[in-house]
């Protein structure tokens, strides 16, 4: 095992990649069956909502949003784009992001939120913005109703349920009602209306995360995969770790060297994973087909999971993955 590590050490490249070349585009053709059903449910429920609250990850404001939302829902109801997980995002260019979204995507109302902090600026502005936009709209068939109904949509794992719970905890001092999980795909269907505010009376409908069925651009796919655990088993955690390494090197963020007990930066994901697995004692027993015995080898999947989790929890700092 140690010899293998030495060989990999010796072959570790020092010239970093200039682009992420990933040829197997098949891994980017994801669309679990329940998502097609979820999209139909969203469309069916649209008649009973006053506003659509689209939640996306603030680290990828320009990539990975599902264009189906725009085609199917766009313009039908007032819309707010909530860029959540702002605590993990580098928002030094927040105003440029807002201008980009306005000019290129026609999104006029953007809020940056941290669902874990109900008192952050974006969370505090959410209810007033919902109220204002619904007040300015004609509400179609719902104009007689006193209560407002909002539907939350977005790709998986961006914090849709967390935002609902956060609003409910803050405004009503009531316990969480929408299930939340670190693993994506927790919400499987459009659920019951959840009350989040008494004055004005606002209910929110949670919905399952729906991915864009086809992502042709490899980098967009990997940015999404890096932010959302939904795609770990579809894309492969080692492929995601490789993209992360490419990204950190490109941004010259070498904090991973110390955190993973490496000697120097590397562009080789195999070298990084073997070294990290050895130094943290992550090993696995493998059956040797020739001898029938077992050998202990570095557990590369566990090392990759740790590396990617560090990024997802902000361990390497705050980032904007979009250029
Ligand atoms: N750091 C941070 N983590 C968040 C934030 N919002 C949600 N999370 C975490 O992100 C994970 C996913 O949150 P959920 O609320 O379940 O996301 P979702 O979009 O409803 O997920 P699906 O049901 O899979 O579509 C959980 O581990 C949350 O604790 C945030 O603003 N900041």
UniProtKB/TrEMBL annotation:
Residues 150-249 form the G domain. GO terms for cellular component: mitochondrial inner membrane. Keywords: GTP-binding, Membrane, Mitochondrion, Mitochondrion inner membrane, Nucleotide-binding, Transit peptide. It is found in: Mitochondrion inner membrane. GTP binds at residues 84-87, 157-162, 209. The keyword Transit peptide applies. GO terms for biological process: mitochondrial translation. Transmembrane segments: none annotated. GO terms for molecular function: GTP binding; GTPase activity. Plays a role in the regulation of the mitochondrial ribosome assembly and of translational activity. Displays mitochondrial GTPase activity. Belongs to the TRAFAC class YlqF/YawG GTPase family. MTG1 subfamily. This is Mitochondrial GTPase 1. It comes from Nesidiocoris tenuis.
